[in-house]
Amino acid sequence: MTAHIPAPAASVMRGIALMSAAMLLVPLMDVTAKYLTATQPPLQITLGRFAFQMLFALLTAAIGPGLAVLHAPRLWPHLLRGFFLSGASVCFFTALATMPVADAIAIFFVEPMILTILSAVLLKEPVGPRRWAAVAVGLVGAMIIIRPGFANFGLTALLPLAAALLFALYLVITRKLSGEGGMLCVQFTAGVGGVMLLGTLFLIANVAGYEPGLAVMPDLPGWGLLAIVGALSFFAHGLIVKAFAAAPASVLAPFNYLEIVSATLFGYLVFGDFPDGPTWVGIALIVASGIYIAHRENRQSREELAARINRTGPPD
Fold first, then answer.
1. CA separation (Å) from 63 to 33, 192, 195, 251?
2. 28-81 pLDDT, tens per residue?
């Protein structure tokens, strides 16, 4: 048996730098999408994001390692993952049409708590009372942010929560498919799944004459911004994949919350939005809960590794 070898310090620092860069790019994508909602429906923006993401993955494979790397051993589970991710994105982009970016992202960050619940229910992973308490604290933080948002935005304030649920389902499937396909395969199949689902919904909305989903022909800058949204998605997810290859997940998990900082900065610079006092209280509860859950998962994984080594003998 091969022992778990801690990542070298240089590799860990590289992983932290890559994750930090990704958390800078993701809010840029969200701010660009929010800007586009002034002229295009969120469903069309999300469809454009996944279409361009799929195109960038295809071009990168064609120029680099070859199209064979896009092959998924089991296609439909990968497409289902794309369905959940695209559903999360359209919910989130729809929320951004009216909500401040930082508020929407803060609510979305209940995702680790939802993932903990789904892991216990669907994957039968053990969850102790302290992690359940952390889940409760994180959900209280979300309610603090949602409460005034619900008064101002109505049911729209629940859309980041729906996005968090769908993204957690995406991560559950990702765990089940661990090791099946590389980064370009994951990006491409998620793009294909997103285009299939969103393209169908977009067609239905236009045939039915559903006004919020009616197609709007973008001008040249609009096409450029759609391409930027797709490119930012492609590069940010690529950086995240490389970060997790360089450093342990438990080390990187807290750096996810840099996204709230950069989202607040960009939201203020572009739209003049800044979270109020209660929102910061909710953000603090969500961040503290998420970091604690990451700490507990890291501790549990170390204990499970030690137990396996004790059962099977010392490592080779």
1. 28, 19, 23, 33
2. 999 999 999 999 999 999 999 999 999 999 999 999 899 999 988 888 888 998
